[in-house]
Amino acid sequence: MTARKKLFLKTYGCQMNVYDSERMAESLKDYDQTDRADEADLILLNTCHIREKAVEKVYSELGRLRDLKDAKPDLKIGVAGCVAQAEGAEIMRRQPLVDLVVGPQSYHRLPELEARARGGEKALDTDFPEEDKFDHLRRRPKAARGPTAFLTVQEGCDKFCAFCVVPYTRGAEVSRPAERVLEEARDLVERGVRDITLLGQNVNAYHGAGPDGDWSLARLIRELARIDGLARLRFTTSHPNDMGDDLIAAFGEEPKLMPYLHLPVQSGSDRILKRMNRGHTAEQYLRLIERIRAARPDVLMSGDFIAGFPEETEEDVRATLDLIEAVNYGFAYTFKYSPRPGTPAAERAQVPEAEMDDRLHRIQALIARQQRAVQDAMVGRDVNVLFEKPGRFPGQMVGRSEHLHAVHVTAEGLEPGVVRHVRITASVTNSLSGELRG
Ligand code: SAH
Ligand code: SF4
Ligand code: F3S
After folding, report:
1. In terms of domains, do 73 and 180 share one?
2. 41 and 22, same domain (yes or no)
3. CATH of the domain at 230
4. Where, by residue number, does [4Fe-4S] cluster 2 bind (predicted)?
5. Number of domain units in the chain
6. Which of 23, 133, 221, 277 fits as disulfide partner to 108, beta carbons 3.0 to 4.6 Å?
7. Considering the entire predicted model, what is its pTM?
8. Residue 198 C-alpha to ligand 2 middle, in angstroms?
């Protein structure tokens, strides 16, 4: 028997990268994961290209690995994820200590690439192959795991927003067949998972092959909800234009679908939305949220905003602040616009840095106020909490409410994976605390 080797895997970027990292680690069957880079036989960086200086950050991280490689010539270093896709062979040219480069659509070839790298070759694969990588990645072992999991059901994007690299790094929209998703979900539930978040760059555009024609995301959710032992379903990230009637209805009809929706809009100004190529107006977005709230009044909205998109004016920023006021977000994320090479917006007149900072702070301040008010309003209410892990204090457990608020409870006998009724007693900076109710 060959001695087991150690893998150090560092993940950047979105939840899809977190999921991919898990699958990659499982596919390297001679390896156990370690959280110490200095004892690794293989170091993999799973990278993100979405914003600022992503490429430079990867090169400086790689530069820091030089001493480890000098001390252990057998150490292999690999780059995966969206920077691997965008840079390809350039990575090995610029940083010769890299042995392996693998793009997001080629992870099923990782074991073979690893063997080639071990044999002294430079191994590279950034193809967009026809086959579904997840069908070819080794099945997850039947090991027990925590109560929450991500499950990628859709990948890639055909929308080409003017600021975004995802269509280039992840390729065209592809949905996994429904039966594959159901199988994987059943397997996760057998291993202790109670809460699954379905992932996709445009997850609500899901249209995977089912036994009776293509299934929508709503249909997939309805079928997943029939799995005994699965308590909760969520999905992210959605595009406003793909929010189908059946998916909206599911919020009111499917008790396992949680009342939480991440629905990025990026800007509240129609002029900017048009320049971003988002394909909808601010009014259409607001009407959509009205319909979602009509189906399920307590849906907590979450979103993404970009501050300082090229040619954005003060008037546009006010329109964004107005939209935020109108929605009342429970969570939302604001990013400073970052010109990405090869995207149309990178060629346009950029907003000065100081302006961008100012706008970012104003948008973030408004969102922080809303977020806090939404959270504070939970005090005194009874909510269902799915417990995930022990807290910092003895006897304390941390879980999530249906609305995704972190909730701390100190009580005897609480196990990860259990759902209990909790009376919320206090709201602190980023979480709630409460007491068990029966
Ligand atoms: N598919 C999702 C989002 C994917 S990227 C959607 O359409 O909403 C996640 C978030 O990163 C985006 O919602 C956007 O707010 C932000 N983002 C993407 N490209 C960016 C860029 N060039 N500069 C700043 N923020 C960006
Ligand atoms: Fe990027 Fe737009 Fe596609 Fe989202 S919908 S991944 S922002 S191009
Ligand atoms: Fe980043 Fe790629 Fe995800 S660019 S946000 S890791 S899809």
Report:
1. no
2. yes
3. 3.80.30.20
4. 157, 161, 164
5. 3
6. 133
7. 0.95
8. 17
